[in-house]
Amino acid sequence: MKVFVYRKCSTCMKALKWLEAHNVEFEERAIKEENPTYEELKEWYTMSGLQLKKFFNTSGMLYKQMNLKDKLKEMTEDDQLKLLATDGMLVKRPLVIGDNFVLTGFKEKEWEEKLL
């Protein structure tokens, strides 16, 4: 299982502590330094069954600076995936990629159901 985090993000740190407290094995990847590629994002999005908007960090500064709330509506899914691949700070975190599931953000109840 891969967990994409930004170490300056308090939610990411809380999620990592939760994983360690529950002895869940994972591989950590820094989302800013090693942002997901277009191919990875496309695969995870397809596998997840989630709306593509769930992959965007809608509360992030970059999302707001780029005025993506309005721009995403005009973009194709493919263009949105390409945009996500340009900067890890656009991606919702923590992002958990399992063998057959994807989790965006840290919702403890959802994590308990999927990971424990």
Automatic annotation (TrEMBL):
UniProt cross-references to InterPro entries, sorted A to Z: Arsenate_reductase-like, Thioredoxin-like_sf, Tscrpt_reg_Spx/MgsR
Gene3D superfamilies in the cross-refs: Glutaredoxin
One Pfam family of this chain: ArsC
Family: Belongs to the ArsC family.
Name of this protein: Arsenate reductase family protein
